[in-house]
Amino acid sequence: MKPFVYDRTYTEWKEWMKEEGEPLFRADQLMDWLYKKRVNSFEEMTNLSRRLRERLSDAFHLHALETITAQESADGTVKFLFQLHDGHAIETVIMRHNYGNSVCVTTQVGCRIGCTFCASTLGGLKRNLSAGEVVAQVVAAQKYLDREGERVDSVVIMGIGEPFENYDATVRFMRVMNDKRGLWIGQRHITVSTSGIVPAIYRFADEGLQAVLAISLHAPNQELRRKLMPISRRYPLSDLLEACHYYTEKTGRRITYEYALIGGKNDQQSHAHELGQLLQGSGALVNLIPVNYVPERNYIRTPRNRIFNFQRIVESYKVKATIRREHGSDIDAACGQLRAKHLDAERRTS
């Protein structure tokens, strides 16, 4: 299998050009064709010699994704279902905000973390994506936005999979995104979300990146978190919070804690008080998320008035809490839901 052009960093392109006997400025030209002009073939790279274009075509794949379907919501949200070279399917989402366009990317085909409220884990983990396969998702989203003269302003690594179980590819992706010769998305406009892989949080703290770290918390105590998120059996809440403290001390960056409100499970007033007490004085931000309905899970959404009350209680402990705006409520909004439908349809026709 040939590597994808998007797998390589600018430094690696310079090394490759040197090995090919090409001047180093060819690396800049190639990056310009890939990320600024966003061409669809090597033949379009007209300021490269024919020999170099042929060499690139022989050594690399340009197309990492094929669009199976794209669902467009009335609110402007776009959800893509992409097919990879080996037939697996992944999801990518464009979300519109008043501060710009955000793209949510996938890092794994499936997921093995097993959170009980998430559709991504249905069917388990198939494989990791390469960094280039993650980069290609943002490039595809940017091509879609090109039609409207808009750009990708931020990236959230919150799609299917656990990014820190595909750590090297995730960090490489972030560095490619941040390169000024590429899409040049600032580190502080990149958010990576983890279910709580404690060793990776320590490692990430030492990377020297200024990205936003988001922790999928979803419970204010270890007992409940173990029921909702099996990963908490391996990495208990106390160990997770200790790693988060290290991250904050090392980077000076505030952590966002994601909390999906599930009716009758983790949305009681007592849970709000526990959460406020747990994060009091940490400087953290809590992002309250009305849970998306997933038929296979049969969880119900917390009523809106209870969500606002939950927020008020958490903030009474001087912990900033926001409520995530819903995107794509009229399409398959839940992470992994569109892929799950696709897999189910494939099973029925096979």
UniProtKB/TrEMBL annotation:
CDD domains documented for this protein: Radical_SAM
Cofactor(s) needed: [4Fe-4S] cluster
GO biological process: rRNA base methylation; tRNA methylation
EC number in record: 2.1.1.192
Cellular component terms (Gene Ontology): cytoplasm
Residues involved in [4Fe-4S] cluster binding: 111, 115, 118
Residues annotated for S-adenosyl-L-methionine binding in this entry: 161-162, 193, 216-218, 292
Superkingdom in the source lineage: Bacteria
Cofactor note: Binds 1 [4Fe-4S] cluster. The cluster is coordinated with 3 cysteines and an exchangeable S-adenosyl-L-methionine.
Classification via PROSITE patterns: RADICAL_SAM
Subcellular location: Cytoplasm
Family in the record: Belongs to the radical SAM superfamily. RlmN family.
NCBIfam families: rRNA_mod_RlmN
Record-given protein name: Probable dual-specificity RNA methyltransferase RlmN
Name of the coding gene: rlmN
